[in-house]
Records
---
Amino acid sequence: MVTQIALASFIGPCVIACTLLYLLLKFDSRLLAHDRPTERGLHERTVSRGGGVIIVIATASCGAGLSFTGIDDGLDWPVALALGAIAAMGFADDHLGLSVRFRLLAGFGLATILAMATIGDEQWVLFGSTYPSQAEFVFLPAVLGLVWLTNLFNFMDGADGIAGVQGLIGTAALAAWFALSNYPSLALMNLGVAGACLGFLIFNWAPARVFLGDVGSLTLGGWFGCMLLIGTSTAGIPLEAFVILLGAFWFDATYTLTRRLLSGARITEAHREHLYQRLILANWSHQKVALGTAALALVMAALASAVTRKPEHGLWFFLLALAILLGYTVLVTRICKSGRPSGQR
């Protein structure tokens, strides 16, 4: 019975996402926005944006389906409402365009709600040591971390396949972690998100017909942030495991924004300086970059999962992951400087 529910939790959202997205693209639905080629972009043709709305719908369907089996989705209603509000804000930004100030203020407000609803009272585990849960000390870092994670996928949703593949691998790993930590409802919900990401990835793979858009990228980032806080403050999953799991994304974004700050560039201005963007500008195909991102994400997921099984070695796994990410950055820099053609789409 449990196996059947798990399969349904994964396959159901996948089919729903794939079917809905096929119909939205076929009939050029107004639910999707359109990105036209610009000098700041990486595409030479118009591509639909906002396909992440089907991940939101498919995941909500998974939660509704679980309720019929008698299994709660594991999320309190303030979490569901805040994630829904993030999705609504992203949808509005995709279609109407919201000011940076409004997005930041709304983002901090929703992150505050999510932090209040997800920070538990269990001990935190970091590098093999346990620390008492003191909400007054972790609340502000939690809010800032949620705002960062909420925007992380948005920064990285610029090349075919990479956001979809990171979402799929990340939530699949989370499903395994929560299952092993005896949180079956959260495991099933993450399976649902993974299935929805797979259905989306079918149309997001190179050559991409659709991108997450703000509605999908902001919501996925918020989802990972919620899972981090619940996992670390309630389920006893080591904090560094989550940091490693999303290493491919947060390292690229953090490194790029730090470089731009040091050079005096505006961080809110559109650019093509992310590591994945630089590879494509160095004549790597979108598919090759997506495959490289998938390989890196799988390595990070393996190291992060090792931390959950051997938390006493968490520091060494973290340092190994950091060394791999630094090596990846050096490799990208050398490739871009050499300008070697590696196949262009």
Note: Confidence is low (pLDDT under 50) at residues 341-345.
---
Amino acid sequence: MADEIVTSAEPTQESEPPRASKAVIAAASLLIVGLAFLVVWTQSAKYEPLTVGKVAPDFELPDLDEKPVRLSDYRGKVVFLNFWATWCKPCKEEMPSMEVLYKTFEKDGLVILAVSIDRVTTKKDIPPFVRALGLSFPVLVDSWGQTDKRYKLMGVPETYIIGRDGVLREKVIGPRDWTLLSNLEVLRQLLKADGGAAPATAL
């Protein structure tokens, strides 16, 4: 009787997990690791900043009269693309120098597009802001953040100077006094390249 009990307690081959199951588990583990790596890689690529030398991403946004404006409509001109907001104090301080810049170089082929990133709650503040500063260059509205990901915006103000070929030539983070010649080197070179000589005097 004792021998029978010992014999029945020994493990049988049926209790061992099949080799096929082990293979499936290993394959599933590799798949999970692969998917995790893909997600991490995709997210890192998503936040890769737009660098000088790349074509500026195209977009279409309404102006203050709800007329659609596309960046590509200005191919062949030098574009000064500025992102700003009404609640941004440095933006407000920078705007007057942008107006002087526009008045000085518009005849040489300069286009200024000022894209407001004010969301729906502060969109109403844009027209009074523009009138108070006497801005005459085109102001576009991006209340739904269409350009945020395309331009990998880190904050406002940010300025992208785009050549006549649509390629980004300079990226400026933060405000700048655009009446100083020392801040206009790239811009003046681009305007002079195909559109005639830019003024040599200080603004």
Note: Confidence is low (pLDDT under 50) at residues 4-9, 39-45, 196-203.
---
Amino acid sequence: MESVKAQTETESLWDNIRKDVAVQVEREPILASFLHATILNHTTLESALSFHLANKLDSPVAPALLIREVIDEALESDAGIAAAVRADLAAVEQRDSACHSLYEPFLFFKGFHALQAYRVAHWLWQQNRRSLSLFLQHRISVVFAVDIHPAAQLGQGILLDHATGIVIGETAVVEDNVSIMQSVTLGGTGKESGDRHPKVGRGVLIGAGTKILGNIDIGRCSQIASGSVVLKSVPEKSLVAGVPARVIGNASCDQPSLSMNQCALSQVDQLR
């Protein structure tokens, strides 16, 4: 019964995207060819996604046709990718005030594109096809200005808002329902090898320009104020700010990543 319900919801989501795009064809005829090629000519979200991503990642070394074959292979081999795609779409629709319809992030939001391309690169990494996964990482960085190592582990329902300048290192872990603003780094602290990157719990909101460095834990449902430099582990449901960052209170709500309330900035005055 659950699988039938999930399939119905999946079909409904794709049908809604197609209906909204059909309206846009009437409103903006100059985009008709683009909208047909990317959305209306496809019967499934997976087909449209592989077509759209492949054309964005196209290069003389690996043309779009070959990249699309790889994306299709990943989607067909791992049903979890398709589920994550839908959860990520829902995250953008629910949390990004600039999103008014699901077709918008699908077609135009590079944070969503970079995240889905990473999911394919991660699948390749798991299949020990590491040269191709690193090639995709490079293309994602060049095209979207987002650098996520294919070995990093990212959950579902992730929002990369604006996305420009996001860096996520090799051994980083990001659990479900995390929201990350632009220019965020989940990095190491030097030349050490092994497990060296942050572990971010579910429900965390990471403000713009934040640097989280080292093999440290960011507790679930915490909130990191913009511009912070976090060098130590953070307890669950904490509000953290400063350079270096320290706990200045409790998170503004139960799940900061969902509310996207960045009022933490107003509390940074407490540090002065």
Note: The chain has a mean pLDDT of 93.
---
Amino acid sequence: MGDEIKSTLEIALEKAARLGRASEEELKWEGYKEKALMLVGKFLKGEEENLPQKVTSFLKEIPPSFQKKILKVIVETLLKNLTLPREEYQLEEAKKILSNLQGILAKVPKIEQVFKETEKLLSEYFSQKEALYHELVKRFAAGLTALERAVSEQVGAKVKLSPEAHPQFQEEWNKLKEHLDREYGRQLDYIKSLILKILS
């Protein structure tokens, strides 16, 4: 913990030293970058609804020499927050990020298709993950029926055992999920790199 605090402090001191030597241009860049990150942060927290409109207004306020770099910072930050959805609400958040990214990059030819494919990929991942999980629960539940009967007879009351509580269940689920995450994660990373390449 002490090392972490020290390294964070060192980073802050290095940045302060850099800013002390920074040119006016570098200071302006830092300021614009900070504002851009705050804008994206507000959107991700649900405090900002129409991000494309805000980004367009913000880009108009800054010198043309910074616009492309700032746009890249905004898009990179949104892409970092675009992850494989573990829960349903995360799928909705991912769709919201995609729709706002599409709005921000609306002038890029054929970009709409890229975002449609990405949304399809994330939805497919989520439904496949859910289906695999329920299939595994069913498979383990089938194996528990005889055990439930035996335990119920022993204790003299109906006993229901949870398939998820089976020691092998988590082991098998983790293997399946790792494979799924690897496959879909690779595809998502490829799409992200493609979008960033378009902006380069």
Note: The CA atoms of residues 103 and 177 lie 32 Å apart.
